[in-house]
From TrEMBL:
Top EC group: translocase
Record-given protein name: Cytochrome c oxidase subunit 2
Species classification: Bacteria, Bacillati, Actinomycetota, Actinomycetes, Pseudonocardiales
Cellular component terms per the entry's GO annotation: plasma membrane
Pfam families, per the entry: COX2, COX2_TM
GO function terms (MF aspect): copper ion binding; cytochrome-c oxidase activity; oxidoreductase activity
Gene: coxB
Domain Cytochrome oxidase subunit II copper A binding: from-to ranges: 130-259
Top-level lineage group: Bacteria
E.C. no: 7.1.1.9
Native source species: Saccharopolyspora rhizosphaerae
Function field: Subunits I and II form the functional core of the enzyme complex. Electrons originating in cytochrome c are transferred via heme a and Cu(A) to the binuclear center formed by heme a3 and Cu(B).
Family that this chain belongs to: Belongs to the cytochrome c oxidase subunit 2 family.
Cofactor binding annotation: Binds a copper A center.
Catalytic activities: 4 Fe(II)-[cytochrome c] + O2 + 8 H(+)(in) = 4 Fe(III)-[cytochrome c] + 2 H2O + 4 H(+)(out)
Length: 312
């Protein structure tokens, strides 16, 4: 009887290991995806900091789970009542050292996780002085305005992009430079969300009256087009309140801003975001609406942007 029990436990361990291996392989995930434990890939250092916190938190949770499962299976396998066994297993309910251990370990885990969470939060929310670029993000029913106070058009107004029912707004930023965003709403509460940044923040009509920190910074690490969304239910056309982030290399961004501050000879007006990107002729990255396509044909004019100038 004892020999059979001795061989049964290793066999169960092997079967469990095989099932786990097949389960991981059947997901079709790459090694990188497995190590990220489902966390999506980001494009900013802040997103990577959050990914590290997530990964190690999951590892800690799995370690605790394995320990707990091991103790449960150990108790089931070696301390169950056997036939003709009248003695109870050794009791531990009044073992003071053991009680201190299983009280101290969770406390240490909570303290460690709290520490690394606070460190990651400080990294994500850090706002060093003198960012490379500043963008004012204005939300309204049901679209977006992006204006750049550091770049002026010939009439002295900041370069400004406003979305409409015929054009999805483009937020163009440089790669490798620290960008500071000032966000607010002109009507109801919206939410500025770019999934690849792993960052979302609500926009309030009067952020200073809501004690809201409406400023954050980030650095995008690679060129690309990323869809942005409103993540706060804000009315009839909330689902259509999208925008695009276009991350360009510094030289392309400088060229883009140079065009945005000039008059388009074909229209007699300053270049719009779409016109400037089209004039740069740098492939799909400079194609307007490469990600989101043409907007839905809706009257997305429930609210109004900030009203600074008319350049779009």
């Amino acid at each position: 009887m004892g020999l059979k029990e001795g061989t049964r436990v290793p066999r169960l361990v092997k079967v469990a290991g095989l099932i786990g291996l097949v389960g991981v392989a059947a997901t079709g995930c790459t090694t990188d995806e497995v190590l990220r434990f489902g966390w999506p890939e980001g494009v900013t250092p802040q997103a990577e900091a959050m990914r590290n916190l997530w990964t190690w938190s999951v590892i800690a949770a799995l370690a605790v789970g394995v320990l707990v499962w091991g103790l449960i299976f150990w108790s089931v396998a070696f301390h169950r009542k056997k036939k003709n066994d009248e003695e109870l297993p050794r009791q531990f309910q009044y073992n003071l050292p053991l009680e201190l251990i299983y009280t101290a370990i969770p406390f240490v885990l909570v303290v460690v996780l709290f520490y690394f969470t606070a460190v990651t939060q400080n990294t994500v929310m850090a706002k060093p002085a003198k960012p490379d670029q500043t963008v004012n993000v204005v939300s309204f029913q049901w679209n977006w305005e992006f204006n750049y106070p550091g770049h002026k058009t010939p009439d002295g107004q900041p370069v400004r992009t406003v979305g409409s029912s015929s054009e999805i707004p483009l937020l163009v930023v440089p790669v490798g430079e620290r960008v500071e965003y000032h966000i607010r709403s002109t009507d109801v509460i919206h939410s500025f969300f770019v999934p690849e940044w792993h960052f979302k923040r609500d926009t309030f009509p009067y952020p200073e009256k809501n004690n809201q920190d409406n400023v954050f910074q980030n650095t995008i690490e690679r060129e690309g087009s990323f869809v942005g969304r409103c993540a706060e239910l804000c009315g009839t056309y909330h689902a259509m309140m999208n925008f695009e982030v276009r991350a360009l290399s510094p030289d392309k961004f400088d060229r883009y801003m140079q065009l945005r501050t000039q008059v388009n000879p074909q229209t007699g007006q300053t270049y719009t975001a779409a016109e400037a990107l089209g004039a740069m002729n740098c492939g799909e990255l400079c194609t307007p609406h490469a990600v989101t396509g043409v907007p839905f044909n809706t009257d997305r004019t429930g609210g109004a942007p900030s009203g600074i100038g008319t350049n779009s």
